Amino acid sequence: MKGLGTDEDAVLMLLAARSNDQRQQVKAAYKTAHGKDLVSALKSELGGRFEDLIVALMTPPALFDAMQLQKAVKGAGTDDAVLMEILASRPGDQIREIAKVYKKELGGKLEKDICGDTSGHYQKLLVILLQGAREMGVREDRIQEDAKELYAAGEGKFGTDEETFISILGTRSVEHLRRVFQAYREICARDIEDSIEGETTGNLESLLLAVVKCVRSVPAFFAESLYRSMRRAGTDDDTLIRVMVTRSEVDMLDIRACFKKTYGASLYTTIQEDTTGDYQKALLYLCGGHD
Fold first, then answer.
1. 257-285 b/e with 16+ CB inside 10 Å = b?
2. Against a cut of 0.90, is the pTM above it?
3. Per-residue model confidence as pLDDT tens digits over 27-62
């Protein structure tokens, strides 16, 4: 970055091709060698979406999620899609770590901030997910009971008992819920998603559906997010960057496979068609390959 212009390809090679841990080491070494912060230096040299992506890559994962959540609840309006995505998809230990980092680095209480911006049953389920305290394992004796209770709370009655949906979907383990969804289908010949769509509305419906999708398959959930971020009029770059950065070291191969299977196109090609320049190159690095 010395002198005129920046060698974007060098920045790309150095950062996009490394793991987040390695990037943190590069950041520390840069500060030792040059006495200044690498992220600030990058910001002064880069611009646009490429800058947003590189800065996101330089942020430790828990802090990045914490900052995304803070951005979602601060200021005018709430970015509910971000709240739902992070809280429905992250495992309990990660959610607890995010809450810790939120307090330490951003000086706020995540639960308090979310509660200040949400209400009703939707808020209640967010708070339950925020505890990161799902049960462990499968409770064989509860599978049929849970399926019957979900049926009785929705399809089986006039009106909906949201509390039951919130309690079961918010606290049971992922393995347990998969078995419950199977049993539910056997009881009422419908998928749980169909019942949620028919019985609930608004943000609660969206959050319950996000939880169900993540229970069934987190990579499929993110493949859908990526598809929606690019296959509309205009690209939703915030979602594209957030998902590519946060999943690049977690389940990108699985996401690519789900994307190809569901949409009949490779994620790589879709990114190529939807983006340009160094921003595109960086995203393709994170994607990793052509399917």
1. bbbbeeeeebbbebbeebbeebbbbbbbb
2. yes
3. 999 999 999 999 999 999 999 999 999 999 999 999
pLDDT (0 to 100) of residue 5: 58
Residue type, 156: G
pLDDT digits (tens, 9 = 90+) for 151-164: 999 998 888 999 99
As a whole number of angstroms, the distance between CA 52 and CA 21 comes to 19
Alpha carbon distance 239, 277 (integer Å): 18
Q: Tell me the one-letter amino acid at 103.
A: K
Residue located via tokens 């009422």: 188
> From residue 124, how far is each of 111, 114, 164, 189, 267 by CA, in Å?
11, 10, 12, 29, 35
Burial of 119 (0-12, 13-18, 19+ CB in 10 A): exposed
Question: What is the rounded distance in angstroms from the CA atom of residue 155 to the CA atom of residue 169?
Answer: 16
Q: Is the dihedral of CA 232, 238, 241, 244 positive or negative?
A: negative
Lookup: tokens for 267:
């994620």
| Cα atoms in the Cβ-side hemisphere of radius 13 Å centred on 74 | 10
Phi-psi region of 161 (alpha: psi -120 to 50; beta: other; left: phi over 0): beta
Q: Is the pLDDT of residue 165 over 50?
A: yes
**154-157 contacts at long range (C-beta below 8 A, 24 or more positions apart):** 154/195, 154/196, 154/198, 154/199, 155/188, 155/190, 155/195, 155/198, 155/199, 156/188
Burial letters 94-113, b for 16+ CB under 10 A, else e = bbbbbbebbeeebeeebeeb
Render pLDDT for 112-126 as a digit per residue (tens, 0 to 9): 999 999 999 999 999
- Our CA angle for 222, 94, 85, nearest 5°, is 30
